[in-house]
Specification:
alpha/beta; single chain; five-stranded parallel beta sheet; 15 helices; FAD/NAD(P)-binding domain; 569 residues; 4 domains
Length: 569
């Protein structure tokens, strides 16, 4: 007798499970329920319809019920909201959102992949202003109708995560002035704060106003009211505050959830209710590195989970190693990628770790369009096990993050990164790729070959009268440098050692950290207590620019000549 497989949710996890179930069993009855009017759409592409990069709304819809039936013999039912699950009877109740009719459906296996809903707090005065969320095709359709009807000159985006960032970018690309509000001390939450500055600077350069560490208090007519007391005049608001799992329909079903409504699953994605599986944004997954459970709202993992669930339903053994979390975002000309653990995630763990910073060129330096790749690698002290990586560049950040992600999944070490044989040609990379270089630095740190301090420590070092040496050439130093530093170029450092105080630590920096590393080793060999400033001048520039932007009282430690008409030179 053929199986009757019911699937709740028609995007990512649900659609993948349905298609895989059909491939594994041509005779199974597969029915997919989607509460909205559209099934299998590209939600990650929604913001790009705002700017016009994706011109036609209909291209966002990847499949429709007729195609699912014709191509896969899958019964895809839209406007079908599953309102209850009875795990004892193995039934679900489905409400037709157009007619209100409620029907009961029996299952042999049930897959729930309901996704998550946008969080919309009950702000005072919200009804007085045009406000929108951005999760579905109808959502983006409503935003586009508003833009075309009212021609807004300014919009406010609340929330600095993926959706908020991409909404702000695409509104700005359309020519609309944008203010982005984030309640924490940084935007781009999937990277550490020190790497978020690059993205924030890029958005500011393109005319997006960034407000951090301030919260929305309420709204009034064409006005956003902040807790700080500031009022922002605006024509409309997009709320991208966060999401909550769409799991209310599972209450009383026997499916165990945590206090926030996320579904608990085992290594086979089975819930605590027999014959019920779960996937996607609404479940808790296991972190491969820490063993902790966490939600992971990304399309790639959801698609994988749907496939693996279908395999398990059909008696196949699956291999669930856990998840590390990898993502990338484009902000105008800058690409920001992250994988694995961040320092924020490690803050409450017992893992002892260290961090390597680098700013090497992404391609050969004499090639046109040469770009720097700002890199951060996190690894376990002692073992050298790779824990995480973050990369920011106008070039290919995802390429480097993907290599590091592969290394993490394979349990590799920083020495393994240094040993990787990666593609090289001048337009694509360098003889020692970015990943190799950051692997070398991390290996040296792990072997205690040298000592370092972070670029963010420069303020305190200079204020305390520290011996901070800039080993760039004179012409570089004169174009822009840190106040209080002494310029002794690498080319003359060995001849000028007598200018240094051997009784005080020497802190060395250059442009990207490579020359200063070499000089740190040389100084150590000559009996100095030398420390490399990790990240060097390039990282300090981004740090300084955003610290001065966010906190006007912060003293600028860059000389005046280093900042000209909004650009660092």
């Amino acid at each position: 007798m053929s199986k009757r497989i019911l699937i709740v949710g028609g995007v990512a996890g649900g659609a993948s499970a349905a298609a895989r179930c059909r491939r594994l069993d041509e005779n199974a009855e597969v029915i997919m329920f989607e509460r909205g009017p559209v099934v299998s759409f590209s939600n990650c592409c929604l913001p790009y319809h705002i700017s016009g990069i994706i011109e036609k709304e209909e291209t966002l819809i990847l499949m429709n019920p007729a195609k699912f039936k014709a191509m896969f013999n899958i019964d895809a039912r839209t406007n079908s909201n599953v309102i209850a699950v009875n795990s004892k009877e193995k039934t679900i109740q489905v409400e037709n959102t157009l007619s209100g009719e409620v029907t009961t459906e029996h299952y042999d296996a049930l897959v729930v992949s309901p996704g998550a809903d946008s969080i919309v707090p009950p702000f005072p005065g919200l009804e007085k202003i045009d406000n929108y969320v951005l999760k579905t095709v109808p959502d983006v359709s409503n935003i586009m109708k508003f833009i075309k009807a009212k021609d807004p000159k300014h919009m406010t985006v609340v929330g600095g995560g993926f959706i908020g960032l991409e909404a702000a970018e695409n509104l700005r690309e359309r020519g609309i002035d944008v203010t982005l509000i984030e309640g924490t001390d940084q935007i781009i939450p999937f990277v550490d704060r020190d790497m978020s500055y690059f993205g924030q600077a890029e958005m500011v350069r393109h005319g997006v106003e960034i407000v951090v560490e301030d919260l929305v208090e309420g709204f009034d007519t064409r006005t956003v009211i902040l807790k700080s007391g500031r009022k922002i005049e605006t024509d409309g608001v997009i709320l991208a505050i966060g999401v909550k799992p769409s799991t209310d329909f599972l209450k009383g079903s026997g499916v165990e959830m945590n206090e926030r409504g996320y579904i608990k699953v085992d290594e086979n994605y089975q819930t605590t209710a027999k014959y019920i599986y779960a996937a996607g944004d609404a479940i808790l997954v296991r972190n491969q590195l820490t063993g902790q459970s966490f939600p992971l709202a990304m399309a790639g993992p959801a698609n994988k989970q749907g496939r693996l669930i279908a395999d398990h339903i059909h008696g196949r053994k699956i291999n669930n190693k856990g998840y590390i979390g990898s993502g990338v975002v484009k902000l105008f000309d800058l690409n920001i990628a992250s994988t694995g653990l961040s320092e924020k995630m490690l803050a409450d763990s017992e893992i002892e770790y260290d961090v390597a910073f680098a700013a090497p060129p992404g391609i050969v330096g004499i090639m046109p369009n040469m770009h720097i790749v700002y890199s951060k690698l996190i690894f376990e002290k002692g073992t050298g096990k790779v824990l995480g990586g973050q990369f920011v560049t106008t070039g290919t950040s995802d390429k480097r993050a993907d290599v590091v992600a592969t290394a993490i999944k394979a349990g590799m070490t920083v020495e393994d990164l240094a040993d990787l044989e990666l593609c090289y040609a001048p337009p694509f990379g360098t003889g020692k790729d970015v990943v190799n270089k950051v692997g070398y630095i991390a290996s040296n740190l792990n072997e205690a070959a040298f000592k370092q301090v972070r670029f963010s420590d420069v303020y305190d070092l200079l204020e305390a009268g520290g011996q901070v040496i800039d080993v760039r050439e004179v012409v570089e130093y004169e174009a822009g440098h840190l106040k209080g530093t002494v310029n002794i170029p690498m080319s003359s450092m060995r001849q000028r050692l007598n200018e240094l105080d051997k009784n005080k630590p020497v802190y060395v920096h250059c442009r990207t950290g490579e020359r200063s590393y070499n000089m740190t080793l040389m100084l150590q060999a000559n009996g100095f207590d030398a420390k490399n400033i990790a990240g060097s001048y390039e990282f300090v520039k981004a740090y300084e620019e955003m610290m001065c932007y966010n906190y006007k009282s912060r003293n600028n430690i860059m000389v005046a000549e280093s900042y000209v008409e909004g650009e660092w030179i």
